[in-house]
Write a structure and sequence with these properties.
The chain has two domains: 179 residues, Isopropylmalate Dehydrogenase; 149 residues, Isopropylmalate Dehydrogenase. Helix content is 39%, strand content 15%. It is built from twelve helices and ten strands. The strands form two sheets. The protein has an eight-stranded mixed β-sheet, with helices on both faces. A two-stranded parallel ribbon has the order 1-2. The longest helix has 19 residues. The two termini are 23 Å apart. The C terminus is likely disordered.
Length: 330
């Protein structure tokens, strides 16, 4: 487990998550032991008592080069979190660990340290030698066994770039990834694809992408997967309504949703499941999970961070990690 940006809430949510009852996770942490021990002491002073003791945690110690100020973007913090992620990834690639869990990083700190990556996903793809990795967000509903699974067709790119980046080959590849993930839980899942434009283009009156290539792309994909139901492209402002009802325990939603760009998928995921959703990277030779939130600089060092999403990320890594190689490799 990579401990993320040391100026954020990574240490806090990891120590809280590992202390949760019933979470007996055999983990290896990658970070600075002295910094983690200091965070533990400060959290105790702040009144946090349900914390794992760093003394009992297996850890690869990569010390910080200089003190870090909580809640601030710093090159030193970016250099540390980059090195911790790199080392943690190497442990999994070498077979010494089964899956990778990452705490949040600050992209601005990476940039300040000279690491020009949009996020951890892109760095992981590079380290693993894969052309592209995908971001899927998954969360088990609080009622019943239904699971919300949302895959992003594009990730950390400006909105203006989305129509230029999307194409039939990309959508088909992402549908293959989504299908493989959903088949962990359902042999013949139902998938939903969101449209790009308002009202999914309104038959070409509000945008031509749907009629010119997205609808033909989905028809061709359905022919190759006759046992899989694929709905779409559906209007983006309504295609997650069924998922919202399922989250409340009112029936089941689709087994998987394909969003065409970052916020299209993450707004409904975070509205429904902010504390439960897990960011899962597909396309790597191992399973990687992380919380679906950021570094929370505004509350770093105050003992106020909730560990729910980190706990879910650790649980998901344990549940899914053993079968990850067969189902997440591109």
């Amino acid at each position: 487990m990579a401990l993320g940006d040391p100026a954020g809430i990574g240490a806090e949510i990891v120590l809280k998550a590992l202390a949760r009852a019933g979470l007996n996770a055999p983990v290896v942490l990658v970070g600075c032991r002295r910094w983690l021990e200091e965070q533990h002491r400060q959290l105790l002073v702040a009144g946090c008592t349900a914390l794992a003791d760093p003394a009992g945690i297996c850890m690869v110690d990569l010390p910080l080069a200089e003190p870090i100020t909580p809640g601030q973007t710093e090159a030193a913090a970016g250099a540390a979190s980059f090195a911790w992620l790199t080392q943690a990834t190497q442990l999994v690639l070498e077979g010494r660990c089964r899956a990778l869990v990452t705490a949040p990083i600050a992209k601005a700190s990476w940039q300040a340290a000279g690491h020009r990556y949009p996020g951890q996903t892109e760095r992981l793809a590079e380290l693993c030698g894969v052309g592209e990795a995908s971001m899927l967000f998954t969360a088990r509903a609080p009622h019943g066994r239904w699971r919300l699974n949302t895959l992003l067709a594009t990730t950390h790119i400006p909105l203006a770039e989305v129509p230029r980046r999307l194409n039939p080959a990309l959508v088909e590849r992402q549908l293959d990834q989504l299908l493989a993930f959903c088949q962990r839980f359902e042999p013949n899942p139902r998938l939903v694809v969101a449209g790009l434009n308002p009202h999914a283009g309104e038959a070409g009156h509000l945008g031509r992408e749907e009629v010119e290539w997205l609808e033909p792309c989905l028809r061709a994909w359905r022919l190759r997967h006759p046992t899989v139901v694929v709905d779409g492209p559906l209007p983006p402002d309504t295609c997650w309504l069924e998922a919202a009802a399922a989250w409340r325990g009112e029936g089941n939603g689709a087994d998987g949703y394909l969003a065409l760009y970052h916020d299209q998928g993450l707004i409904p995921v975070k509205l429904l499941a902010f504390d439960a959703a897990v960011n899962t990277t597909l396309g790597l030779p191992f399973l990687r999970t992380s919380p679906d939130h950021g570094t929370a600089f505004a509350i770093a060092g105050q003992g106020r961070a909730r560990p729910d999403s980190m706990e879910a990320a650790i649980t998901a890594a344990l549940e899914l990690g053993s079968a990850s190689a067969a189902t997440t490799r591109t």
